[in-house]
Design goal:
Blueprint (H helix, E strand, L loop, with lengths): L16 H36 L3 H9 L1 H12 L1 H19 L5 H26 L1 H8 L6 H11 L2 H17 L4 H4 L1 H20 L2 H16 L2 H9 L14 H7 L3 H25 L6 H12 L1 H6 L1 H15 L3 H38 L6 H14 L3 H15 L7 H24 L1 H23 L8 H27 L4 H22 L3 H6 L1 H4 L7
Helix pairs in contact: 1-10, 1-17, 2-7, 2-15, 3-4, 3-8, 3-14, 4-8, 4-13, 4-14, 4-17, 5-8, 6-7, 7-11, 8-11, 10-11, 14-21, 14-22, 15-19, 17-18, 17-20, 18-19, 18-20, 18-23, 18-24, 19-22, 20-22, 21-22, 23-24
Length: 537
């Protein structure tokens, strides 16, 4: 094990041969399917904007859209994953050591039936309470009746998203990433299909019905791989290092003391969106829609930056389950810099080319030039918080991979949420929708700084000074890339050509500056292109 001096760049040891190849292949497949899901999500939003534009009907649907957004965060992306991936990792370590009853099957038997019952009850309550939910989320909404109808349709995703999240966590714990990465492809296919088939007759209710169909498809696309994983003992699992008390750890992995902070963290993170909708409800018609379109596009770099963490989360959980804290620390530090590289490069393009991006993606049909300008203004402000979003995603996974109760991430998220609410209340009367986006960026950045500060005092003890220094260098590179992209986009009048020139300029300048500043993970990430010019520490 290599020790690293405080403040110095840690030595990067690659994963063992076969493990490294498996991670690379899993990351490649996840990246491909993530991009496919994101592109289908854009196509979904384009179809929605084309059919309905940005008006009171779309605002009503987007209030109902809060249900799948919260459900996805709590049941797929954060909540269940933070609890179940470490639990399945402990169970797999126990399976490797013992020849008796299979701890994986015991874990499933103890959790899945109860989860299905709770999800069904939660969905039924939400359907019955839809009028009250709409009144709380968006008081004074002009089309509250339409929002109630859409909320009742989207409420079915509480059950289907929960099952999809359980399947995804179980498969990732088993080292299977193809099916979980494909769930948003299936989801968006369901929404797009019903939009095209029923959009003219049902209006925005067709999109809500598409959410219900998409949730079912998310489960079905994972069932075959999950059945194969649970029927057979994986040969690769037997090679895992053994935990001290895997059986006991698995039995305790889903205690209320562990679940509670995860739930609070996930709900607090998603509550930022609820605050945005609440603050935007009294604004002129279309404000909620402009916020939604801007957020969906601006967050694409963040989503892509976290695809690696989806693959490495089980690796970190298994390393900690077996006591290998050094390997877990190196992995988290590397993930932070790689995620920062991707998201800051994407943010530079979003800031510089926001009008062109929105014009190319959405300006057609009922979506007017006024909508493009309003959405672009909001999106530029949202981009200021993208680095914070990415860091929170990476650091949260590292905190919750230890399968023990940790309240610090939830407290950090609550502090960021309070900052978002306070700043938003002050900013909305002055700046309107862009003020809401600024409050979001402020709150999530505060959360990221708190989590980064606390990560140096944990069991795996990240080198906060070194990580902060590397991220600061990337911010400098992003500043240069933004200026170059802005200039490149200004030399062409056609939006597609302006985007092409701007993106090319941004990538070139970002690469040169990051290389000159010797950002280590950037050099490792692009080693085939920079082998002669980059030198890892």
């Amino acid at each position: 094990m290599t020790e690293t001096a405080p403040g110095a760049a840690p030595t990067t040891s690659p994963e063992p041969g076969s493990s490294g190849r498996v991670l690379a292949r899993a990351a490649f497949l996840t990246a491909g399917l993530t991009v496919a899901g994101a592109l289908l999500g854009l196509l979904r939003d384009q179809a929605f904007a084309h059919f309905f534009g940005a008006d009171t009907d779309t605002d009503a649907f987007l209030v109902a859209w809060t249900v799948p957004e919260v459900a996805a965060t709590l049941l797929i992306e954060d909540g269940l994953a933070f609890v179940l991936v470490p639990a399945f990792s402990l169970a797999l370590v126990g399976r490797a050591r013992h020849t008796g009853p299979d701890p994986v099957r015991a874990l499933v038997a103890a959790t899945l039936p109860r989860l299905m019952l709770a999800l069904a009850a939660g969905g039924a309550v939400l359907i019955a309470a839809a009028p009250a939910v709409v009144a709380v989320l968006a008081p004074g909404l002009p089309r509250a009746d339409l929002a109630v109808d859409c909320t009742r349709l989207t409420a079915t995703c509480v059950f289907t998203f929960g099952l999809a999240g359980y399947c995804s966590a179980a498969l990732r714990g088993h080292g299977r990433f193809l099916s979980p990465a494909s769930i948003y492809v299936a989801y968006n296919v369901g929404i797009i299909a019903l939009l095209l088939l029923l959009g003219g007759a049902w209006g925005v209710r067709a999109a809500a019905a598409g959410v219900a169909l998409g949730g079912v498809l998310m489960v079905l696309v994972q069932v075959p791989a999950l059945w194969r994983s649970w029927r057979h003992r994986e040969p690769a699992v037997a090679a895992l290092p053994a935990a001290r008390h895997p059986a006991r750890g698995t039995a305790q992995a889903l205690r209320l003391a562990l679940i509670a902070p995860v739930v609070v963290f996930a709900l607090s993170r998603q509550t930022q969106v609820l605050i945005e909708r609440f603050l935007a409800a009294p604004l002129p018609a279309g404000a909620i829609s402009h916020l939604n379109y801007a957020q969906k596009v601006a967050q694409m770099p963040m989503v892509l930056s976290l695809m690696l963490c989806t693959v490495t989360f089980p690796v970190i959980a298994r390393a900690l389950a077996s006591g290998d804290t050094e390997r877990a620390r190196r992995r988290v530090e590397s993930d932070l810099i790689v995620a920062g590289t991707i998201v800051l490069l994407g943010a530079s393009v979003v800031v510089a080319c926001a009008p062109q991006i929105i014009q190319v993606l959405f300006q057609r049909g009922a979506f007017t030039a006024h909508d493009t300008a309003a959405t672009a203004d909001v999106m530029r402000v949202y981009a200021l918080g993208l680095l914070g979003q990415a860091l929170v995603g990476v650091l949260a996974r590292s905190y919750f991979s230890e399968a023990r109760p940790l309240w610090f991430p939830a407290c950090a998220m609550l502090a960021g949420l309070a900052a978002t609410a306070a700043a938003g209340a002050l900013a909305v009367p002055v700046w309107g929708a862009p003020g809401i986006a600024a409050a979001n960026a402020l709150g999530i950045t505060l959360t990221a700084l708190l989590l980064l500060w606390g990560s140096g005092r944990r069991r795996i003890a990240l080198s906060v000074r070194w990580v902060g220094g590397q991220l600061a260098r990337l911010v400098v590179a992003a500043g240069g890339a933004t200026a170059a992209c802005w200039w490149g986009a200004s030399v062409a009048s056609h939006p597609v050509l302006a985007l092409a020139v701007g993106v090319t300029s941004a990538v070139a300048v970002f690469a040169v500056v990051a290389r000159l500043l010797r950002v280590r993970e950037f050099c490792l990430l692009f080693r085939p292109l920079t082998r002669k010019l980059c030198h890892a520490r």
